[in-house]
Amino acid sequence: MFAILAAVAYLLGFIEQGSGSHTSAWFSPMAMLLIGSFFLVLHVAGVDRWIPRP
User: Fold this and answer.
1) Is residue 44 predicted with pLDDT exceeding 80?
2) Count of CA atoms in the C-beta half-sphere (13 A) of 24
3) What is the pTM of this model?
4) Which of 6, 12, 47, 50 could bond 42 through an S-S bridge, CB–CB 3.0 to 4.6 Å?
């Protein structure tokens, strides 16, 4: 689950960097890379296994 979120965040950061349309500091390419790295760390740590499934 977190690996998919990381991939989406990296993809959005890559698209923003390539298009040059990043005007907001909240959704800048660097912010998207940091968000993607955060989700990747959660995935590697196995946090998704800690969340109980119904």
Assistant:
1) yes
2) 4
3) 0.69
4) 47
CA-wise closest residue to 31 among 50, 13, 49: 13
54 domain-assigned:
no
More confident site: 25 or 27: 27
Query: Region 13-17: what's the mean pLDDT?
Result: 80
The Cβ-side half-sphere exposure at 53, using a 13 Å CA radius, reads 4
Please give the residue range of the domain that contains residue 22. 2-49
- Residue 39 phi/psi, 5° resolution? -65, -35
Token pair of 4, please? 């998919």
32 close to 10: Cβ distance less than 8 angstroms: yes
